[in-house]
Amino acid sequence: MAQEKNSYEKIYEVVRQIPKGCVATYGQVAALAGNCRWARVVGYALHVNPDPEGIPCYRVVNREGRLSDAFAFGGVNRQKLLLEEEGVTVHENHVDLSTFQWKKSVF
DNA sequence: GTTGTGACACATT
DNA sequence: AAATGTGCCACAA
User: Which residue of the set A18, A57, A67, A90 is catalytic?
Assistant: First the structure.
């Protein structure tokens, strides 16, 4: 078993755990996945995003709380809308991490 | 098998 | 303060 829970699956698992109304940074997800160095891999994992319904990429932001330029997976506007629907206040492309960054301890 | 690139993060200049 | 360089890992050619 445990047929290679290869990087991606781990990352997806972590992203899936992000509760509603919260956002997580790539580094955060990477760290929860097991390695802070996976930040880039996390971005790649979301890039392929095989399950956009279970992997809300829009809940994942860089360490600035900002969305990447290439993030607009359907329009930056779309992203803002989705996050606001979740209860996250989004300013164009950035959110207040201090307020909305996911804290695993809370869950 | 090696090289290059990438939706990042951190350190240093 | 901003820009650059470096580190790390995975995938594509």
Answer: A57
pLDDT, tens digit, for every residue of A67-95? 887 776 767 788 889 999 999 999 888 89
| Residue A23 C-alpha from the chain's centroid | 6
How far CA A72 is from CA of A19, A57, A80, A83, A99, in Å, comes to 21, 10, 10, 13, 22
Q: Provide residues 29-68 of A with CB closer than 7 Å to any strand B atom.
A: 30, 36, 39-44, 46-47, 49, 57, 60, 62-64, 68
What pTM was computed for the model?
0.88
Interatomic CA distance for residues A75 and A72, integer angstroms: 5
Any strand C atom closer than 7 Å to A7 CB: yes
Asked if A57 is an active-site residue, the reply is: yes
Q: Given this model, what pLDDT does residue A84 score?
A: 93
Domain range A2-100, CATH class: mainly alpha
State whether residue A96 is helix, strand or coil: coil
